[in-house]
Amino acid sequence: KMQGSQQQDCGKKRKKPEYVYGNYPFYYGYRVGKTLEEDPRVSVFKREWIENRDCLDIGCNEGHVTIALAVKFCCKSMVGVDIDSKLIYKARCNLQHEVEALEKEEKSKEDERKQGGEQKNSGKTPSTDSEEAAVVQKAAIGLELSERVTFKTQNYLDVYCKPGTYDTILCLSISKWIHLNWGDEGLLKFFAKVFKELRPGGRLVLEPQPWESYSKKRRVSEVTRKNFQRIKLRPDNFPSILTEKIGFKFYEEISSELPSDKSGFRRPLFVYHK
């Protein structure tokens, strides 16, 4: 039986949620559309940025990109963090689904191999050998995936991390929300923290939102409204800030390599090298 207050809550009209931190559910899926199996940004990542590396995805949302990179490039470790506990719960569910899918795929291939064992590889081509090897490797990744990929609910700015912890840090479409919620000072603190936590030779993969998009979201809270009026730094200033003030050696833009995308969300994508 429900208490009186609970009954009253059920009778109230639900208020549309305001995503103060840009924590939209299934944001990556919304961006790329349901027809694309893989987020197009994953295709421009270089293997050496992820393979056998310790990686961090800040503002990971439901973990789709986080998991895709871990599976495709076999990272040493991948930590996804988000300020929204509901998104982290979904990310953990998505991780479990991926593990189960990879294990199921390997079991299916193993059954096929057993059935064809008596033929002693007759009719097999080198290409089918390599395809099977890829599937076996993919399944092996699945068995370890839950150990190598972790998701945590946290405000990245508030959590201490030992310097030189990561090789690669992702900051995809979250700089605007850090900027609006914590102002110029908070954004500079964020960039400095990322730099400190990267190992020498590490890299920051940054996808900043354009300044024009800030005004559309400035009223999501009183804090963002006030910060918007005070902000002096602009996304166009980020390259000089990150290289001259923060200390990154150089940067490159990789968004030109992105496949054509009709969703309208294509943004510049940069890699800053420490």
Automatic annotation (TrEMBL):
The UniProt record lists the keyword GTP-binding: no
Compositionally biased region (Basic and acidic residues): 104-117
InterPro entries: Bin3-like, Bin3_C, BIN3_SAM-bd_dom, SAM-dependent_MTases_sf
Chain residue ranges for the region called Disordered: 104-133
Domain called Bin3-type SAM: residue spans: 39-274
EC number: 2.1.1.-
Single Gene Ontology MF annotation: O-methyltransferase activity
Pfam families assigned: Bin3
GO biological process, one term: methylation
Residues annotated as transmembrane: none
Superkingdom, taxonomy of origin: Eukaryota
Signal peptide region: none
Keywords: Methyltransferase, S-adenosyl-L-methionine, Transferase
Biased composition (Polar residues): 118-128
Recorded family membership: Belongs to the methyltransferase superfamily.
Protein name: RNA methyltransferase
Organism: Selaginella moellendorffii (Spikemoss)
